[in-house]
Write a structure and sequence with these properties.
By secondary structure, this protein is an alpha+beta fold. It has two domains: 103 residues, no CATH class; 115 residues. The chain is 55% helix and 8% strand. The protein has eight helices and six strands; from the N terminus they run E-H-E-E-E-E-E-H-H-H-H-H-H-H. Strands 2-1-3-4 form a four-stranded mixed sheet, covered by helices on one side. Helix 1 crosses helix 8 and helix 3 runs antiparallel to helix 7. It is elongated, with a radius of gyration of 26 Å.
């Protein structure tokens, strides 16, 4: 989700708009991150000059549904559903734009991809270690019936399991970056440690299985947005203080 605040340096309504943004983030549960553009700044992109001050864009769209206008140079006012004029858009309009962008970003698809990425780690963690020479013949006989050749994968089991666990943690970390919720990442790291210790150090099956379950829980929780957003900068924090004053 790309949230942008466009403003003029001398606009008196900027702080009120920041406070409104924080209130909308809090109400929707979306992580409080946005980028600010001062319209006359040389580093600001060209498209921000076509919006009045202040304006909130969510994924490039004005939350008030107004098309950009090259002639806009003054402070902006908004009209509520009751026809009243205000220095900021209605709170529900901002919340609606955030909810729509959050739902269209595909959290279910992202979570499904994270689950698929964790399958190799789960599979290798549940593979038995072939440490019994008498079992080799049994495995070989079963595989030969299926037309497959027996391969002793035990020497490669530890590095493969560790590598696949790292992949799963990286995927959870990407989810964390999107949602701002660090708990699944910490849970995924703990689960990976439990799997490695339970399978290769202590060789306790129930401990390994418990680690796998924790990893699955971490993947499912990774798609959940952090309930308490954090202001991204001192200016935004100041806006938040003003909102609650």
């Amino acid at each position: 989700m790309n949230v942008e605040l466009i403003y003029d340096a001398d606009c008196p309504n900027v702080e009120k708009m920041r406070s409104l943004l924080i209130q909308a983030f809090t109400q929707t549960g979306v992580s409080a991150r946005w980028r600010e553009w001062e319209r006359s700044a040389p580093e600001s992109p060209e498209y921000v000059r076509f919006f009045g001050s202040p304006t909130i864009l969510v994924d490039g769209k004005d939350v008030a549904g107004v098309a950009p206008d090259a002639g806009i140079r003054a402070c902006r006012v908004y009209r509520s559903e009751q026809g009243n004029l205000s220095r900021t858009p209605p709170l529900e309009a901002v919340c609606s734009a955030l909810r729509n962008a959050s739902s269209s970003s595909g959290p279910a698809e992202t979570q499904w991809r994270a689950m698929v990425a964790s399958f190799p780690a789960i599979g290798t963690a549940l593979l038995p270690k072939l440490v019994c020479p008498l079992c080799f013949r049994a495995y070989a006989a079963i595989l030969s019936m299926l037309g497959l050749e027996f391969v002793d994968y035990t020497p490669y089991l530890l590095p493969l399991t560790a590598a696949f666990l790292i992949v799963a943690i990286v995927v959870i970390a990407l989810q964390t970056r999107r949602t701002g919720n660090t708990m699944p990442l910490l849970l995924g790291i703990a689960a990976s440690i439990v799997v490695l210790i339970g399978k290769f150090s202590l060789e306790i099956d129930w401990l390994t299985t418990g680690g796998v379950v924790l990893l699955i829980v971490a993947v499912f929780l990774g798609g959940r947005t952090k309930s308490t957003p954090v202001a991204p900068c001192p200016a935004c924090a100041a806006g938040g203080d003003e909102q609650h004053a």
